[in-house]
Amino acid sequence: MDKGKDKWAEVIKYLRSTKRDPKKVLNLLRGNEKGNQSNYNISRSSYTLNIIAVITQKIQDAGNKNKNFSRVVRDWVKSDDFKSFYNLMRLEENLKYKNDEEHHRLYTKQIKDLWYSKTKEVLKWKKYFNETGGVFYVKDMPKSKNISSNTFPGLQKKRS
User: Fold this and answer.
1) Which DSSP state fits 18?
2) Which terminal CB of the chain, N or C, has fewer other CB atoms within 10 Å?
3) pTM (predicted TM-score)
4) Could you tell me which of 66, 42, 40, 48 has the C-alpha nearest to residue 113?
5) How far apart are CA 88 and CA 86, in angstroms?
């Protein structure tokens, strides 16, 4: 048997026996080449960061003060904001938001599973966003707990 075929036989057999999308597998492999980050990998890696940031904002929002965690997530999953977010984050995977109860439950479960995950990445982002109120700072976070409008001059209202 040719060594080249034998070398890949197990991989090919596995891929043929699953319901994996060949295009997605190829995108994943291409993205893992040294020094090459595909849009697919960038979207996937930022998904966790974005979910944790948004959920932190939702939890800390005064309007959600009396709602339990599951309710906050479910309400977001049913919103136009989540629809736009989902479609943007899953664009490279050709996945589109589906607005029905079955998918609402699925999206809610996925977000809750991510939130309760004990991976280092999730724990790191939960701690960071808890400290920043769900905001990602491009520069170092201000030392002061109280952030004045002077901290971010670009966000100040122009006075006439």
Assistant:
1) S
2) C
3) 0.62
4) 48
5) 5
77: buried, middle or exposed (CB in 10 Å: 19+, 13-18, 0-12)? buried
What CA–CA distance (Å, rounded) separates 23 from 20?
A: 9
Say what the alpha-carbon torsion angle 151, 154, 155, 156 is, to the nearest 10 degrees: 80
**78 alpha-carbon distance from chain centroid:** 17
Integer Cα distance of 58 and 103 in angstroms: 20
Alpha carbon distance 76, 82 (integer Å)? 6
Alpha carbons 58 and 134: distance in angstroms, whole number: 9
Least confident of 9-18, 58-67, 70-79: 9-18
The sign of the torsion formed by the CA atoms of 145, 150, 155, 156 equals positive
**Rounded mean pLDDT of 76-96?**
89
Residues contacting residue 82 through CB under 8 Å, at least 6 positions apart: 76, 97, 107
